Amino acid sequence: MKTVFCLLLLCASFITLGNERASELPSVTHYSLRLHFFPSEQRFDAEARLTIANHTQQPISEVPFLLYRLLDVQSVTDESDSTIRFSQSVQKFKEVPTWQVNVVRVEMPKPLLPTNSTTVVVKYGGSIYGYSEVIPYVRDRINEQYSLLRPDALAYPIVSHPSFPVLLESYQSKFTFDIQATVPSGFVAACSGELLGRASERDFVTFTFESKGPVQRMIIAVAKFKVLTDDEQNLTVYCLPEDEQGAVNVLKEMKKVVEFYSSLFGQVRSYKGYTVVEIPEGWGSQAEGDYTIFQAASAFKGTNISEVYHEIAHSWTVQAKPAVHRCRWFDEAFAMYFEALAIREFRGDSVFQKHMEGLRDRWLQRTASDKRNFDVPIGEYGKFELGQSSYTKGAWSLFVLHQLVGDDGFKQIIRSLLSEFADKPADFKDFQSVAERATKRNLKKFFDEWIYGAQSSQLLADKISVNELVKRY
Ligand SMILES: [Zn+2]
Fold first, then answer.
1. Residues of each domain in the chain carrying CATH 3.30.2010.30
2. How far apart are the CA of 281 and the centre of ligand 1, in A?
3. Which pLDDT value is given to residue 288?
4. Could you tell me the distance, in angstroms and rounded to a whole number, from the CA of residue 195 to the centre of ligand 1?
5. How far is the CA of 291 from the centre of ligand 1 (A)?
6. Architecture of domain 225-316
7. What is the 314 CA–ligand 1 centroid distance (Å)?
8. pLDDT for res 255
9. CATH 2.60.40.1730 fits 1-222, yes or no
10. Ligand 1 centre from 186 Cα, in Å?
11. Distance 177 CA to ligand 1 centre (A)
12. What's the pLDDT score for residue 359?
């Protein structure tokens, strides 16, 4: 996932400033959204039915939600339609005053006790014009060309105070969802969930979606999409009408890369197919945990198709334990390296070699602007928010390991990792143990130089070839 990272990184850089915590707040375990889009009026109406659970130790009598600054709440009710008192006011984020949000405070009719759940129905609506003054890629809006609702623009109520650390923590909690999106005839709704059906009534069409499992985010896009499908592999592409020709190619590339990763590392367990939804250039490509990729337009115009390789590669990565999650190695180093392997497969070894040299150069540029990228071992990136270097040096660590253990060894490592850690998170020691067992080799020196220590930085800076590098181990 390339762009959500920016938002989380931005949040994380303020993490020490706040003292409120989301863990003292309840969490939403299910969203049921009824959305009505009016693209020509640049607005939407929504009814959000939220299942709220109290996982804290304390009774909760007030729940704060954040919404985009131009979204107004009309009413809050309970399950039996009784009115619940609430207040709303536009406020600034403590840490970044240019980020304005509507803070909605809902007074629970009676305190929500620990372990209990309740339902709150929030009716709201309005316009969205993005947050590009705070986060450049968040250009979300409602209009006839393209409408986009994402948590990045707080398009649906998110339990949080206007504080980065709290929002960051809140983004981590998982939920299921169902969505009914009603759009004018001629428009098509696409979503990061499974399409269950579509029904027309007078001048409107309603699309029904459901999450494929617990997720951290939901995204809904509305445009005059063309839809292309491949039934054999359950692949779908939503593209803007002018990019239909490019979408044929995107679908072909998706099919190829799914087959390629599956042949190397095995099929993803409980395969559900993949959906690519085109979003305008510069709005940020994003991959969701449920096999939906929101892909910037350039991939449809013949460039940046490797972003699709990257996003699909995330399905062949494992979760990292919380202590090492912010290293971004278990997700991004792998996705970057698998993307590179797809480039080698489809475009040849010399393009692959150039691509890897490009990653090394990007890392060297980062070390020039912040020497910590050179001095801090990969295994400690999380402590200093240096996870961006997992996209470059992290990918190189896997390149060197691959060269060291050979094709069969590398495949075996990844296959073992995926099966052993399908349902639980891993850390670096887990990975080392999997790698050593799978290849029956002692890899201590490699892990000491590339993961736990930073000797590898000098080797990279000296631009030693990978064939020479592996002779050390
Ligand atoms: Zn990624």
1. 225-316
2. 17
3. 64
4. 25
5. 13
6. 2-Layer Sandwich (3.30)
7. 7
8. 95
9. yes
10. 33
11. 24
12. 98
Residue range(s) occupied by CATH 2.60.40.1730 in the chain: 1-222
Residue count of the chain, please give it.
473
Instruction: Report CA(42)–ligand 1 centroid distance (Å).
Output: 32
- Number of Cβ atoms within 10 Å of the Cβ of 361: 12
Distance 4 CA to ligand 1 centre (A): 9
Ligand 1 centroid to Cα of residue 173, in Å, is 19
Buried b (16+ CB within 10 A) or exposed e, 265-290: beebeeeebbbbbbbeeebbbbbbbb
Per-residue pLDDT at 291: 82
How much distance in Å is there from the Cα of 72 to the middle of ligand 1? 34
Separation of CA 8 and ligand 1 centre (Å): 13
Cα of 12 from ligand 1 centre, angstroms = 18
For residue 336, the CA-to-ligand 1 centroid distance in Å is: 7
**Strands of the 286-287 sheet, one edge to the other:** 226-230, 235-239, 274-279, 292-296, 286-287
What spacing in Å lies between the alpha carbon of 443 and ligand 1's midpoint?
26
- 286 C-alpha vs ligand 1 centroid, how far in Å? 8
Asked if 93 and 99 touch (Cβ cutoff 8 Å), the reply is: yes
Whole-number pLDDT of residue 20: 65
Domain 322-472 bears CATH identifier 1.10.390.10: yes
Rounded CA separation 225/244 (Å): 9
pLDDT along the chain (473 residues), means of 10: 47 48 86 98 98 96 97 97 97 90 96 97 97 90 96 96 89 94 98 93 96 91 97 92 93 95 89 88 78 87 83 90 93 96 97 97 96 97 94 98 97 97 95 98 97 97 95 93
For residue 114, is it left (φ>0), alpha (ψ between -120 and 50) or beta? beta
- Numbered ranges of CATH 1.10.390.10 in the chain: 322-472
Helix/strand/coil for 37: strand
